[in-house]
Specification:
Distance between the termini: 55 Å
CATH architecture of the largest domain: Alpha-Beta Barrel
CATH topology of the largest domain: TIM Barrel
Structural class: alpha/beta
GO biological process, one term: L-leucine biosynthetic process
Cofactor: Mn(2+)
Oligomer: single chain
Pfam family, one: HCS_D2
Bound molecules: acetyl coenzyme *A, 3-methyl-2-oxobutanoic acid, magnesium ion
CATH superfamily of the largest domain: Aldolase class I
Protein name: 2-isopropylmalate synthase
Number of strands: 15
GO molecular function: 2-isopropylmalate synthase activity; acetyl-CoA C-acetyltransferase activity; manganese ion binding
C-alpha cells in the first residue's frame, strides 16, 4: 500500500474563510486535535502576515511533536526569516514557500516576467534550504500555467533544494482528468521529478476539490493538502476527511492509505466547526448530521436486515457513536468524567469539578445531556478562562408595547464590578446596547447567528457574533440554555478577544 501524507491547512487556508478568526488558544486546541487525528503536516499559519499568526505558529511548532509543523512564506527573504523564527523550535522545521506561475498572475499581480519568477523561485528555495531541513515549494495557480514553463520552474526548484513540490489548483479551475494530466506531464518532462514528493492542493470552486485530489493520487501525488470540513478561501479546500475515507473505503482501487486515525474525524470536525463558527450542512459527507441517517422505508428495511445494504461507512469508523449511557440530572461525577474522556477531553480534577457544576446546572434545565451539549460546554470553557470581563448578572424586560430594557452586571479581572442598563428595539439589541455602555468602547456588530444544539424544545442555544472596533474584527461565541444569555455571552466573548488583541498591540508598542 502506498502511504499518502495528509497536509492540513485548516489553520492557514482554512482561516482564510471569510468571517473566520481564531485566537491563539483556539488554534492550539485545533493543532493538538489535528495531531491526534494523525495529520502528517500541519500548516499552522503564515508567520509574516501578522504578529498573531507568528505567535500561534511559534507556539504550535513548539507544542506539537507527532506531526510536522509548517508555515507559509512568500518568495521574499523577510517572510522566510520570520517563518524561521517561528518554526525553528519544531521537531522538523519545514517551510512552505510559494510563487505564482500563471501568465495572468505574473502579468497582473506580480508584474514580473517568467524569467524573473524563475530566478526568484530558485533564489528563495536556495535561501530557505540553508535554514530549513525541509522546503516545500508551491506553484500558485499551477493549473492555469503554461505546462512547459511549469515543468521548467519545477525542475529548477528541485535542483535548488525543494523536497516537496506542490501543484495547487488555486482557483478551483481544474477537473479530475485535467489535473491528472498536469501531474503526468510533469512526471514525463521534469528530469529530476523522482527526487521530490508531489503534492496536490485543490479548491472547491467547481465542487471538484476532493475528486481532483483523488485524481492527483492516481497520477502520482503522495501528499494531499486540504482542510477539515473543507473550509477555506471562497468555496473552500478539499475536505481531508473525505479524501481519507475515499482511500480507506476504496483501498481496493487506490491501493493507498492515509495515516489518519479515522475515529478522531468526528471530534475534529465538531471542534473546528464550533471554534470557527462554520456550521456543517446536514448532508455533508461523513460528518453531516444526516450522513448515517436512513429516512425511506426501503432503505430502513435493508439496513435492518443488514447495514451493508445501504451503508458503505460504519458510523463508528469515523467516531460517530451511539452512546448507551444517557447523562442527565441524576448522573454522577464518574459517568460525567468517563464520557468526557470518551469524547477526548482529559481534564485536571479542578477543571472537571468546575465543569461538573456547569453540567449539573444544565441538567436541571434539560432532560438529557447529549454529546453535542457536553462538547459545547467543554470547548467554550476551555477557550474562555482567564478573561477580562465575566457576565455576573443579566435581566431583560420585554413586553408587547413596551421598550425592551436590559440590566447587566459584569465583573472585571481586577474585581471591579460594572453595572449598566439600556434599551433597544429588541431584547438582543437592548443587551448589546447595555454591554456597549459597560465597556465604554465603540463596538460595531457585523454579524449575529443563532442555532440550537441538537434541536428540540430544551436545546442549548449557541450564538456566534462578529464585531469590529478600531479596525479590529473578532468573532465570539456563547452557549447557554437561554437565547438571551447566549447572546450576551457571545458578545462578551468577542469583547474579551478584542481586549486581548488591543492589549497585545500595546505590549508590542512598548
Ligand atoms: C493562494 C493563497 O492562499 S496565498 C496566501 C494568502 N494569504 C494571505 O494573503 C494572508 C494574509 N495576507 C496579509 O496579511 C498580507 O497580504 C501580507 C502581510 C502577506 C502582505 O501585505 P502587504 O505587504 O500590505 O501587501 P499586499 O497584501 O497588499 O500585496 C501583496 C504583495 O505581495 C506580492 N506577492 C504576492 N505573492 C507573492 C509571492 N508568492 N512572492 C513574492 N511576492 C508576492 C504581491 O505582488 C504584492 O506585492 P506589491 O506590493 O509589490 O504589489
Ligand atoms: C499558497 C498556496 C499553496 C495556496 O493556498 C493556493 O495556491 O491555493
Ligand atoms: Mg489555497
Amino acid at each position: 500500500m502506498q502511504k499518502i501524507n495528509l497536509f492540513d491547512t485548516t489553520l492557514r487556508d482554512g482561516e482564510q474563510s471569510p468571517g473566520v478568526n481564531l485566537n491563539l488558544q483556539e488554534k492550539l486546541e485545533i493543532a493538538k486535535q489535528l495531531e491526534r487525528l494523525g495529520i502528517d503536516v500541519i500548516e499552522a499559519g503564515f508567520p509574516a502576515s501578522s504578529k498573531g499568526d507568528f505567535q500561534s505558529v511559534k507556539e504550535i511548532a513548539s507544542t506539537v511533536k507527532d506531526s510536522s509543523v509548517t508555515g507559509l512564506a512568500r518568495s521574499v527573504t523577510q517572510d522566510i526569516d520570520i517563518a524561521w523564527e517561528a518554526l525553528k523550535d519544531s521537531a522538523e522545521p519545514r517551510l512552505h514557500v510559494f510563487i505564482a506561475t500563471s501568465p495572468i498572475h505574473l502579468e497582473h499581480k506580480l508584474k514580473k516576467t517568467p524569467e524573473q519568477v524563475l530566478e526568484t523561485a530558485v533564489e528563495m528555495v536556495k535561501y530557505a534550504a540553508k535554514k530549513f531541513p525541509i522546503v516545500q515549494w508551491s506553484a500558485e495557480d499551477a493549473c492555469r500555467s503554461e505546462l512547459p514553463f511549469l515543468a521548467q520552474i519545477v525542475e529548477a526548484v528541485i535542483d535548488a533544494g525543494a523536497k516537496v513540490v506542490n501543484i495547487p489548483d488555486t482557483v478551483g479551475y481544474t477537473t479530475p482528468a485535467h489535473y491528472g494530466s498536469v501531474f503526468q506531464y510533469l512526471k514525463e518532462n521534469v528530469s529530476n521529478i523522482d527526487k521530490v514528493s508531489l503534492s496536490a492542493h485543490c479548491h472547491d470552486d467547481l465542487g471538484l476539490a476532493v475528486a481532483n485530489s483523488l485524481a492527483a493520487i492516481e497520477a502520482g501525488a503522495t501528499q494531499i493538502e486540504g482542510t477539515i470540513n473543507g473550509i477555506g478561501e471562497r468555496a473552500g479546500n478539499a475536505a481531508l476527511e473525505e479524501v481519507a475515507l475515499a482511500l480507506n473505503i476504496r483501498k481496493d482501487f487506490y491501493q493507498a492509505e492515509s495515516g489518519l486515525v479515522l475515529p478522531e474525524i468526528k471530534r475534529t470536525s465538531d471542534l473546528i466547526s464550533k471554534l470557527t463558527g462554520m456550521t456543517i450542512a446536514p448532508n455533508k459527507a461523513i460528518v453531516g448530521k444526516n450522513a448515517f441517517a436512513h429516512e425511506s422505508g426501503i432503505h430502513q428495511d435493508g439496513v435492518l436486515k443488514n447495514p451493508l445494504t445501504y451503508e458503505i461507512i460504519s458510523p463508528e469508523l469515523v467516531g460517530v457513536k451511539q452512546n448507551p449511557i444517557v447523562l442527565g440530572k441524576h448522573s454522577g461525577r464518574h459517568a460525567f468524567r468517563t464520557r468526557l474522556v470518551e469524547l477526548g477531553f482529559v481534564l485536571e480534577d479542578e477543571q472537571a469539578n468546575v465543569l461538573f457544576e456547569k453540567f449539573k446546572d444544565l441538567a436541571d434545565k434539560k432532560k438529557d445531556i447529549t454529546d453535542d451539549d457536553l462538547f459545547a460546554l467543554v470547548v467554550h470553557k476551555q477557550v474562555n478562562h482567564d478573561v477580562e470581563y465575566k457576565l455576573e448578572g443579566l435581566q431583560v424586560q420585554y413586553g408587547i408595547n413596551n421598550i425592551p430594557t436590559a440590566t447587566i452586571t459584569l465583573q472585571r479581572k481586577n474585581g471591579d464590578v460594572v453595572q449598566e442598563a439600556a434599551t433597544g428595539s429588541g431584547s438582543v439589541e437592548a443587551i448589546y446596547n447595555t454591554l456597549a455602555r459597560c465597556l465604554e468602547q465603540d463596538v460595531k456588530l457585523l454579524d449575529y447567528r443563532l442555532q440550537s444544539i441538537n434541536g428540540g424544545p430544551d436545546a442549548l442555544a449557541e450564538v456566534f457574533v462578529k464585531v469590529e472596533s478600531d479596525g479590529v474584527e473578532v468573532s465570539g461565541r456563547g452557549v447557554a440554555f437561554d437565547v438571551l444569555e447566549s447572546s450576551a455571552k457571545a458578545y462578551i466573548n468577542a469583547i474579551n478577544r478584542l481586549f486581548a488583541v488591543k492589549q497585545h498591540r500595546v505590549e508590542q508598542e512598548v
